[in-house]
Amino acid sequence: MFTSRAEYRLLLREDNADQRLSETGRQAGLLSEERYQRFLAKREGIEAFIKILEEKRVAVGHPLVAEVEKAGGGFLRPGTTYAEVLRRPEVTVAMLLACDLDLAPLPNAMEQAELHIKYDGYIRRQKEDAAKLKKYEGMLFPPDFPFSSVRGLSAEVRDKLAKVRPASLGQAQRIPGVTPAAIALLLALLRRDPATLPGGPDSG
Fold first, then answer.
1. pLDDT tens across 56-70, in order?
2. Which of 31-45, 62-76, 99-113, 181-195 has the lowest mean pLDDT?
């Protein structure tokens, strides 16, 4: 399945499919006990490794300081957490493991822990955006909403909206090709005074 047109593709990654769907599969009776226990062990391993990285700090003279500088990174201040170090683009989990032999994560937990930490800010923002749009998906468009004249939308999106004429924001969200950015713009318009909508008396 291609996710290029998915609404929140940072959340719909191939690497976290088991974390997103295993509980649902279990409830539907599609996941064996053995696979479910493997999922639980992996999830616990990811959470435990992330906790270690968020709590452990770089000591003075730590080999990681020189390694980061050699990789092209700037000065690494002592006291920085491993998680903060890992957020740097030049740093990888493999580098942390090479510089600290006490780290011993489960092999299948390393990749997801690294992605979680590196993209945590973006992922949280997408979750907040998704929750916000879910809250407003029942918001209705006025019957005469001028989809074809909304500035800021691509010609393709305007054409799709004008053809389908969705009754609500939730329906617009489910039209193939209508992007999250387009939905956010429509939401902003709907929350404004109706007189300021495109084509309204104050639209100039």
1. 999 999 999 999 988
2. 181-195
**38: domain CATH number?**
1.10.10.1800
**Cα–Cα distances in Å, from 36 out to 22, 44, 46, 135?**
7, 12, 15, 32
Pair of tokens at residue 58:
């770089």
Q: Is residue 202 part of a domain?
A: no
Which structural domain, as residue segments, surrounds residue 81? 17-126
Q: Cβ distance 75 to 82 under 8 Å?
A: no
The token pair that represents 118 in the structure block? 């590196």
| Contact assessment for residue 161 and residue 108, using Cβ atoms and an 8 Å cutoff | no
- The residue among 126, 156, 178 that closes a domain is 126
pTM: 0.64
**Does the residue 5 lie in any domain?**
no
Q: Give the separation between CA 135 and CA 190, rounded to whole angstroms.
A: 14
